[in-house]
Amino acid sequence: MGGIFGTISKKSCVADLFYGTDYNSHLGTRRGGLATYSSEKGFVRSIHNLESSYFRTKFEPTLDKFEGATSGIGVISDTDAQPLIMNSHLGRFAICTVAKILNKDELTQHLLDKNMHFAEMSSGSTNPTELVALLIIQGKNFREGIENVFHHIKGSCTMMILTEDGIICARDSWGRTPLIIGKKEGAYAASSETTSFPNLDFETAHEVGPGEIVKITAEGMEQIRPANKKMQVCSFLWVYYGYPTASYEGVNVEEMRYRCGSMLAKRDGDSVHPDIVAGVPDSGIAHAIGYANQSGVPFARPFIKYTPTWPRSFMPTQQSQRNLIARMKLIPVHRLIKDKSLLMIDDSIVRGTQLRETTEFLYRNGAKEVHIRPACPPLLYGCKYLNFSRSKSEMDLITRRVIAKREGENVSDKVLADYADPNSTNYKEMLEEIRKELNFTSLKFHRLDDLKASIGISPCKLCTYCWDGKE
Fold first, then answer.
1. Is residue 449 within a helix (H) or strand (E), and if so which, with residue range?
2. How many angstroms separate the CA atoms of 89 and 137, rounded?
3. CB–CB of 431/378 below 8 Å?
4. Of the candidates 187, 222, 214, the residue with the CA atom closest to the CA atom of residue 17
5. Which of 11, 268, 296, 386 fits a 20 to 30 Å CA distance from 233?
6. Best CA proximity match to 71, nearest among 186, 159, 158, 178
7. Whose CA is closest to 101, among 27, 137, 153, 136?
8. Residue ranges with strand state E in 208-308
């Protein structure tokens, strides 16, 4: 997906910028970048590849180059190299984005037809952040330029713009990704994650609304454009993306996951009798604790993830390599597995490959039963708005492969809606096909109505497209 952080201070901002950006590292895996401004050096930028290392490892040795900066922005990206530094009639500025632009090729051609050019390329195609920057400079000022972005792109875009006199922060027009403002004496900051704030002594001051544009300086915050009334914030933030300490729309991730697990246990009732409840690390753990607390079944960790040297399992581009890393990271605790009935909670099932390997790993180590309880409904649609998966096709989803086997590949929205209904025969038969294919003892997904209740904000403010196809 990606995360961004920016800060401006009356004194040096470099340490806050470095650590604040690093606290967004769980949101992306491919590129990291920093850009700063000082009156002495002007704009300074650095970008590193993170696919084989970590943000701190790459950036810590080069922090001296930013010395003296009082403002800066940073980004962890799953896609393009950024931030970019631009020179335009709006002045010099640096920009970073969290974006997924569905009509990128169409907009690229539109700008080329206006005799504009692209200097940056990402994997052989247009750099999305540069595309956003070129749309911005079509405006007479930053507000008009950012509104031009909101008007033209299909998908989502949240951004930060570092100027010589402040940082302009703009949240996606539907609020699909978060952006939060923090403050402390003599400094302001903005971040995708509130996790960045506590250890840097920032307190949450404002949650930027959908389409809202604000400017922060060391002295305060100024609203440039008011928020839109409608919101479609990504529900998956709470289920999977979000760090446990983060809060979005006033709802803490860890608390939401406890509620989710509790509701899963209530739905199960006395239908299963596991010896142990466990979470697939890391995002499944809080869900599992919620289930255990509600059901009275002990929470335990029948396997531990070895993290000191193994990178995140979805970093490699090849699925086979990701599967290998995921398997090598799991070390069993035999006494908690052998002859035990285990109930495992994972955040979701996408392809199903890793969870099947985890299940086989448990059986090889003596498990008697493996019951699976995903913490969200079956994923039926590829996300249009966020880069949360490397999947290139909806047929990568195990649900769609099962449905295609039953219905053929060209399935109507009406048929898909029936498969999304937990009370339908098609839904129940789809789950049974998935259960058999992945070799689970039993399988029950979190229901969408329960998921919305787990989050606890108005359902009309939540994006649930990947589960129900409703935009």
1. helix 448-455
2. 7
3. yes
4. 187
5. 268
6. 186
7. 153
8. 213-216, 221-225, 233-234, 247-248, 251-252, 276-279, 303-305
